[in-house]
Amino acid sequence: MSTADLLADFGTIKGELAVGGMPLSLLAARVGSTPFFAYDRRLLTERVATLRSVLPDGLDLTYAMKANPMPAVVQHLAGLVDSIDVASAGEMAVALDTGMPAERVSFAGPGKTAAELRRAVAAGIVVELESSTEARRVLAAGNELGVRPRVALRVNPDFAVKGSGMRMGGGPQQFGTDAEQVPGLVAELVGADVDLLGFHVFAGSQNLRAEIIAEAQRRTVDLVVGLADLLPTPVRYLNLGGGFGIPYFAADTPLDLGVVADNLAALLDGPIAAYLPEARTVVELGRYIVGECGVYVTEVVDRKVSRGKTYLVVDGGMHHQLAASGNLGQVIRRNYPLVVGSRAEEETVETASVVGCLCTPLDLLGNDVELPRTEVGDLVVLFQAGAYGLTASPTAFLGHPAPAEVLV
Predict the structure, then answer these.
(1) pLDDT at 170
(2) pTM of the predicted model, to two decimals?
(3) Within 13 Å of residue 139, how many CA atoms lie on the same side as its CB?
(4) Residue 293 among the catalytic residues
(5) Which of 102, 226, 356, 366 has the fewest Cβ atoms nearer than 10 Å?
């Protein structure tokens, strides 16, 4: 998706970027200081509506709140999605505060402590077990509390997904239980006082190739069908994971959601209906829901030229938006789309690099970007900032204050 497309999605008012229908300068005045993250309520709603209109009926939509756990965002999405996935006791508290029913909250991720699992069992949410250690902790918590734990098994599949920004399945992994070890783990649980609902398989994230996502979903269903007979009751929960990517760079092609939807429809009508008819089938999306709905706004505090190269120094940086600096998984650094939000419709006349206020050359938000003539006081806006922004960044570095977050 191009910068022009992103500008069109958010809109402009009198030459300024608009977020939530509000011109950037007014929004900045209301927030009171820069830097800040702003998330557009309308775009969030539209993204979920698009998913609902394209994905097949009978498929549940889960929000993976690790992508953006801001309470106001989670509260808004809780009224639009079917369920919420969390990755810590802190996220669990935010999810339950939305009023989402406990049985529609799932808890995945490695390294769950005994205390976290005790809270999860007490709350009645679905614990997605990553290991036999977690299974023993959950059973102990259930016995102590007099509560029957609700659990699913997260499986590390015996296949990998090519083209993912982050591979989370296949080969050795800290995520889930290896598929070949699942029979042993099920044997530990059968006969215990536990409600064993089904399986979760998440093979990779940030994938823009629909045919690869479709293949992973087919192989996931095949895997779960093969494991289903291990359970003492029919599979009632099938989490296919997500992995839907969003375009960050100029050469990226947006995901063809229609291809993914057609494949999911074929799976629901075919092998899932035939072999897993009682399963609540889930796709779990985070980045795809929130990523394109947010911006990071930071103010130019200095303009300087060093041996012919222009630098725009801003009051934000990688301590708030690590991914945009290229230090969160990029092998070859590329620029996230950005604009001078206060000059959104002006012609580009110069090439400049946007750098943050940290004492490291890694603090680079835009390298050799074509921009309008930019001055101290102008607002630089980074797009695709709705997911894995503030909470995925080293906010304590150098002791700068944390940025604000607003949902508008």
Answers:
(1) 54
(2) 0.94
(3) 16
(4) no
(5) 226
